[in-house]
Amino acid sequence: MPDFPIVDTHVHLWDPALLRYPWLNEAPALKEPHLPTDFRNACGPVAIDRIVFVQCECDPAQNVEEAAFIAHLARTEDDRIQGIVAQASLEMGDAVRSSLEALAQNPLVKGIRRLLQQEPVEFCLQPDFVRGVQLLPEYGFSFDICIFHGHLANILTLVRQCPEVRFILDHIGKPDIKGQVFEPWKSEIATLASFPNVWCKVSGVVTEADMTHWKKEDLKSYIDHVITCFGTDRVIYGGDWPVLKLASDYPRWVEALDWAVAGLSADERRKLYAENAVLFYRLPG
């Protein structure tokens, strides 16, 4: 377990009584509210210094409202929430500007995520979507890439078209850890890491393993590979709570990751667990 407070860059919070989350109808285990007190209890002995909230696939019409709700929680319930990755329909191209402008009024919004994992692999290559991503630097926003590993080849094409955008790959690109499949994920990760504007979030790993029977040994080769490719200056820790609950409790995930990165120096571990997050998401010093 890290002996210093860490920054969790992938926390989801929701209250279905306030906003609409259609996908929760298919996920009964997660359908109840998940709020800051619940997260605090879930962390147990893990000390969390700061939190980056990541959008939760509410009704797209409520994206600005979701960001406002999280900013309210930051003011009233948990001031560790210091960054928001908001939702925006980037496939609208230039027409998404009004949404980005509204989000830019919320000082906690640091980045955008348009969930791609459930879309066809060619979705990210639509000209209007590419244009929407290219707009993000105008507002100071980064882009969280959330995909399954089969999307990686086209994501490489997207990234080539957006050299000014700061990207971060969520959940190490969701490889098939359960099946212990490495290619083409392994080669495509190496290519993605060659772009200096792309970082990698070490998160969401246990839910890509055998969620009932995973072992820390199942994860290590995948974690080692992204750290080798991206280096210790471009990898960032994420908890992916409460989706994490489908496969693990919070302390067990942190313990597994800490075991996997035991070969890193103390300074490198601080980068992974805290310092890189502050840099990428531009969190207060």
Fold and architecture overview:
The mean pLDDT is 97. Helices cover 34% and strands 14% of the residues. The chain has a single domain (6-280), classed as TIM Barrel (Alpha-Beta Barrel). Strands 1-2-3-4-5-6-7-8 form an eight-stranded parallel sheet. It is of the alpha/beta class and 285 residues long.
Termini separation = 24 Å
Strand content: 5-15%
Radius of gyration: 17 Å
Number of strands: 8
Strand order of the largest sheet: 1-2-3-4-5-6-7-8
Question: Which shape, going by the Cα principal axes?
Answer: globular
Described by strand count, sense and barrel closure, the largest sheet is: 8 strands, parallel
Specify the oligomeric state. Answer: single chain
Under CATH, the homologous superfamily reads Metal-dependent hydrolases
Task: Return the CATH architecture.
Answer: Alpha-Beta Barrel
Mean pLDDT: 97
Unreliable parts: none
Domains (count): 1
Tell me roughly what share of residues is in helical segments: 25-40%
The number of helical segments is 9
**Element string (H = helix, E = strand):** EHEHEHEHEHEHEHEHH
Highest-level CATH class: Alpha Beta
Please identify the structural class as seen in this structure: alpha/beta
CATH fold-level topology: TIM Barrel
